[in-house]
Queue: 2 jobs
Job 1
Amino acid sequence: MEAKREMITIYIMGKAYKVPADATIMGAMEYAGYQLKRGVGCREGFCGACATVYRLPGDYKLYTGLACSTLVRDGMYLAQIPFVPADKPIYDIEKLEPTVITFQKIYPEVFRCVACNTCTKACPQELEVMDYIQAVIRGDIAKAADLSFDCICCGLCAIRCPAEIVQYNVGLLARRLYGKYLNPKDKQLDRRIEDIKQGRFSKAIEELMKMNREDLRKRYYERDIESQVGD
Amino acid sequence: MYPEYMRESLKKVEQTRQKRLELAKSGKEVYPPMNAKEREEVLYKFHPDYREGARRVVKVGPNKGETLTTEVADLLESHSRIKPEQFDLTKPDYETDLLIIGGGGAGCAAALTAIEEGVKVILITKLRLGDANSMMSQGGMQAAVNPNDSPAIHYLDAIGGGHFDNKPELVKALVMDAPEVVKWLENLGVMWDRLPDGSLQTIHGGGTSRRRMLSCRDYTGAAIMRTLMDEVRNHPDKIKVIEFNPAIELIMDDKGQCAGAVIYNLETEEYSIIKAKATIIATGGYGRLHIRGFDTTNHYGATADGIVIAYRAGANLLYMDSVQYHPTGAVYPEQIAGFLVTEKIRGAGGQPINKDGELFVFPREPRDVESAAIIRECIERKKGIVTPSGRVGVWLDSPLIEMLNGEGFIKKQFPAMYRQFYRYNIDITKEPMLVFPSLHYQNGGIEINEKCETKIPGLYVAGEASGGVHGRNRLMGNSVLDYNVFGRRAGRYAAEYAKKVKLGKLTLEHVKKYEEELKEAGIQSNRIAPILLPNYTPVEVRKRQLTAHYEGTLR
C-alpha cells in the first residue's frame, strides 16, 4: 500500500522532503522523520499548538494554517510558529467592569486597530477577527464574545497584526466578562445548590449507596427516561 | 466529498430519513434500548476488551496477579528513565507546598482551589499549559440542574452506566458537587449555552435518563480550559507554571510520604528535583498507547505517565482492565481517522445508520454498549461501509438534527464538527458522517477516595488518571465534571495536608526496589516508561537513524 501512495515534495524550513500527497502538514513532518515536541498538541484542531505559515510556488501570498488539519501541496514551503510571544496582563476578574473601559486599561493597543482585516485573513478558524476587535472598541462585549467563541488561540492573528494587538487574549477577556457579568442567569441554579447544601437530596443518595447490586440494577433498568424532544 | 461508490448507500439513508424524523418528533423511542441481558451479550461478543489478548496478568507491583489491559501491563513492566543513585536529593532545585503534575483541567482546577487555602503551588506540565484532553472535549458536562432531575437520578445513571462497579462515595461527590461546579465556572466567566430566558440549555447524552448535558457549543472543553488557564496565569505570585517538564518519577521520604518529583526538561534534557509537601497527579489518560491498534481521539501527550510513576511508588490501580472506545470516531476522510465526533450529535437527535439506511441501535446507549453495537453491525452483520483505505464504519445521520431542531442549528451548536468535515468538502448539514469506535478514555486509574487521597500519604490524584468514579464505563459529560469536581477537591485537601505535614529525608529507594522486583519476576524487557510521547517516525526512517539512541520512544 505504502509504495503506491502518490508522493510530492515539500520544503520544511527550506529543506526538501518527499511526503505523501494526501498527508496533513503534521503527518508529513512526522513522515519525514521529525519527532515533534513543539508545534503539536491535540492534533484535531482544538488547541492551537500547530500554527504554520507557508507559501506556494509562483504565489506571493503568505498563507496560514494549522499543521494538524491543513493538507500539504506540491512545492509548499513552510515553517511552524510553535509559540507566539504575547504579554498576558494580570487582572482580577472580580474587580473588572464589563465595559469598554476595562479594555482601555488592560489592552489599550486594541484602539490602534487600523481595520486592515489581516487578522481575519490569517485565522485558520475563519473567524471574523477584525469584527470582534471592532466590537470591543464599540463596547459591544456580547458581540465580541460571540464572534470570538470558536477561537483556538493559535496566535496567527497576533503575529500578522500591524497594530500589534493580541486578538486572542482580547477575545478571551471579552468572553469571560460576558460569561460572568452579562449572560442572563439561570434562576433555578442557585436554588438547586441551596437545596443540596440543606441536604434535600442526601437521603435519596444514601439509600442508593446502601443498595445491594441486584436491587440497584433493578432500579436502574426500571428508571423512566425523559423523551428526546422534552416538553 | 464521498467517493462515488458510496452514493447508493447515502441514497438509502436519505430515503429512510423522513420516517425516522417523524418517529423522533413523536417523542416515542426511536429504537428500543437494550435490557441488561442484551447489553451483556453485545459487550461480551464485540467489545474490544473481550477480544483475545486484550488483557493479561501483571507480574509486579501493587496489583500483581491482577488481569489488566495488555498495553497497560506492558507499560507497568518497564524500566525507569533514571538511575536513582545519580540524584542528590538533599539539594532540590525547587521547593514548594504543593506540586501539581499536569496542566489540564484537573491540574488547573486544583491549583486555583489550593491557593484559596494559602499554599504555594508549582504546576508542571509535559507540553504547554492546557495541552490536555480537557481542551478537546466537545459535547458537554453533566449536572442535575433541572427541576425534573436530581443528584440521585444522576447517581443512578452514572452507576448503571459503569456496570455498578463505581465507588459509591466518589459518585456521590461527583453528582452532589455538580451544580456548584456550574456556578463556579460561570463566576470565572464560562459561557454556558442558554435558552433565551437565561436558563441553562440541557440535552441528553448516552445513558442519561434526564436531559442534563450542559455545553458551550461543541467547544465545551476548550471554553472551560481556556478560562481556567487564564485564571491560573492571573496568579503568578502563587502558582509557578513550568512547561515542557514532565515528571518521570515521584520522590518519597523515609516515612513513606510522597515528597515531590523528578522532572525532565523535554528540550534541554536536564533533570531537576522538586521537593513538595503534597503532590497531585493530574496527568490524564492513555489514548496514545493505541490500545489494540485503535486510532485515538486523545491528545498527543496522553501516555499514562502518572499511572506509571504512582504505581512504582506503591499506589493501587482500579479497573485498569477497562478501556473506553468512543462510539463515533471519524473513519473518513483518512486524514481525520480516529478524530472525535461528539456524542452531542446523538444527544441532539443524530442516529447511527447502517449501509442499508436502517437505524440498528438506540442512539444513546452507554458508550461501551453503543460501540459494541456498531462493531457488531460492521463485523458480524456486514452492514458497514468500507472506505477506500479499507476502514469500515457506519453513517452518523447529522442532517436529521437540522430537520429536528431547525435550519442553522448545526452551525450554531456544532461549529467544530462542521469545520472539521467542511475542510474535506463534506457538509454535515446535508450529508451524514462515517464513523467507527475510537480509543477515547481510561475508565480506571489510580484508586482514590472522596478526598482524592491515595494509599500513599501526600499523594493525591484527580481527573482521568484516577480510578473508581466511573466504574468500568464512563458516561458522556461525566469527565468534564470529574476533572472539575475532583480537581477542586484534590486542591483543597492536598493544601490542607501540606500545611500540617513534616517531611523526612528524601529518597528514590522505591525506584530501585521496583527494578529489583522486575528482575525477580524474570521480566526481560527493554521498555522504558513513562514513554512521554508516542513515536510516529516511519520504520524506514528509523532504520536510517544510525547514530540515534532511543530511550523508549524518544530519541
Note: Chain B touches chain A through 95 residues (CB under 8 Å).
Job 2
Amino acid sequence: MKRAERTSIQDILITLVRMALGMVFIVASIDKIADPTAFATSVTGYRIVPQGPAMLMATVLPWIELLCGLGLVLGRFVRGSTLLALVMLTVFTIAVLSALWRGLDISCGCYSQEPNAERLGWWKVGENGFLLMMSVLIWCRSRIAPTLERFLQHQSEALHKKE
Amino acid sequence: MRVFSKTALAEAATIVGAATILGFVFTGITGRGVFRTSPAATTSTAEHTITSRFLTFEEARALHSQGRALFLDSRHAYDFSLGHIAGAVNVPLHDFDTTHPMLSTIPRNHILVVYCDGEECNSSVALAALLHNRGFANVNVYFGGWYDWRAHNQPTEP
C-alpha cells in the first residue's frame, strides 16, 4: 500500500514536471512562429550558421518546439518529445556556451525576439541546465507516469472488457 | 539499445516531419520567413535588421570625413566614456527607452551610422533595427565598429 502511494505521488510529480517543461517549450515557440525572420536574425547573431540555413531553422525549429511542448503537456508522443527536448536543450546550451566563450554581446532569441530583450548571460546556461534535468527526469520516469495515451488505452481496455 | 528505443526515435521523426510540413505550410500561407515576398510587406524588427546597410571601413570613413552622417555608439556609457569615434553620440542599446527621445530632433531621412565594439557585438544591429522601427529611413551599420576604427588610426574622442 505504501509503495503504491509513493508511486502515485511520483506519478503526479513527474506529470507536473512534464507539463511544466511542455509549457516552457510552447511559450518559447510562439514568438518564433509569429516572426521567423526575427528568429533567423537571432540565430545568425550566434555566428554559427549563415543567413540561409538560419532561415530554414527558423521555419522548422519553432514548430518542433511547439509540437514537443504539446506532446509533453498532453502526454502524447512523450518518449519522442522528451528525446527531442533533450537534443534541443543540449544544442542550445552548447550554442550559448560557445557565444559566451567568444564574448558575443547578443540577444538570446529564446523567448522574445525583441533585439534588446534577454541579453545572453551565464544565467541562461543555468536555466538550460535546469530544463535539461527536468528532461532527463521525464525520460527516466516516463514509463510509470500517467499519460493521455495510457489513459486512452485503459479506457479502450475497459470498454473491451465490458463487451 | 533501450535508451534510444525505436519508439522514441520513430516518435521524434514523426514530430520533426510534422513540424517541417507545418513550418513550410504556415510560412507559405502567411508569407513569412523564407516565403517573404517584399521587405516592405511586413514591419517586423528583423525585416529592418536585414535591410540595414552594412558599411565597410572605407564607406564609414568617407561619411565621417564629409560630415554627412551622425554616428551613434550603441555601447554602454562607460565604454563610450573611455573612447569613441569623434563626434559620435552615445545611444546605449540597454537604455534605448530613456535615450531615444533625444533623437526626436533628428530628421528621419538623416544618414545614421550605428556601431559598437566590432564583430563580437550585436548591439549595433539591434539598435539599427529599433531606429528603423521609429521611422529612421537611412540607418547604416558599421560592423567593424570601434576596434576597426581605432586600428585605422581614425579621429577619436576624448
Note: Chain B is about 45% helix and 15% strand.
